[in-house]
Predict the 3D structure of the following.
Amino acid sequence: MSTSDALHFDLHSHSTLSDGTLSPETLVRDACAQGVDVLALTDHDVTEGLAEAAVTAAEVGLCLVPGVEISVTWSGVTFHIVGLNIDPEHTGLQAGLAKLRAIRTGRGEEIAQGLEKHGIEGALVGAQAFAAGPILSRTHFARFLVEAGYAKDMRKVFKKFLVHNRPGYVPGEWTTLEEAVGWIRDAGGQAVIAHPARYRISATRLRQFIETFKGCGGVGIEVVSGSHSASDVASMAQYAKRYELLASCGSDYHGPEQSWQKLGRPMPLPKGCVPIWKEWAMDCKKST
Ligand code: AMP
Ligand code: MN
Ligand code: MN
Ligand code: MN
């Protein structure tokens, strides 16, 4: 493919290796069916789905961008940093991700203890039953709680449990922003701030975060995200311009159950944004 102008990009998605509900293979097939030309698989703190995704991508002629979404604690707040075009074999990156997965395991036990204090038994085993991959996420606890009848759906369960001031809330002490961006850069990738409009922080703090991120060598920001409104997109486009960050777009797809996040349907980037793929060499052909 010689020009990226007409291509459809979805640069943020999850599979069963983290907290998505589709296998990497099915995710790639569905993305292709939705008209996605370039898909990034960005599982939370794990890259093990990329090999399977790459095999299917070659088969169907979709361009797969190897990615990851890294959990970060900055100033007491959890942020997510997406790494695009990483080398998943990089040992420094893998050592860092292994540390995060261990933190997740310990946090999972604390979440289950917190829920038990509120009379909810068996949450750890219940959540683990929903985790097909090597990470344990709040999403897996949420699915257990819905299945066990403690809440009606995924939106409601996150209002009642697992969030600040609610049963089962354990903040998690992740890695630093400096480390996360460093691992991505060392692995040859581009670091991108995930869903920047979703963090509950003031504009001043967000500006400080972006400045620190840039200082660490971060280069991109998700202007378009499945969890951004049209006005979020407009305001994040302003941040991208002001801080000379490359603009990314991704659905943050977790599977067909989350009807508000549609695979391969991110809004177009607003005019004036410099797309993160501007200098990517893309050659996605079907293998025979
Ligand atoms: P964790 O990284 O284990 O703290 O889990 C965070 C994940 O929970 C996110 O990546 C989302 O997939 C999911 N999540 C957080 N808040 C919500 C929500 N309100 N509704 C649905 N999923 C959510
Ligand atoms: Mn998730
Ligand atoms: Mn995220
Ligand atoms: Mn995500």
Q: What stands out?
A: DSSP finds nine helices and seven strands in the chain. The domain at 9-97+175-250 is CATH 3.20.20.140 (TIM Barrel). The pocket of manganese (II) ion (ligand 2) is lined by residues 14, 19, 44, 139, 254 (CB under 6 Å).
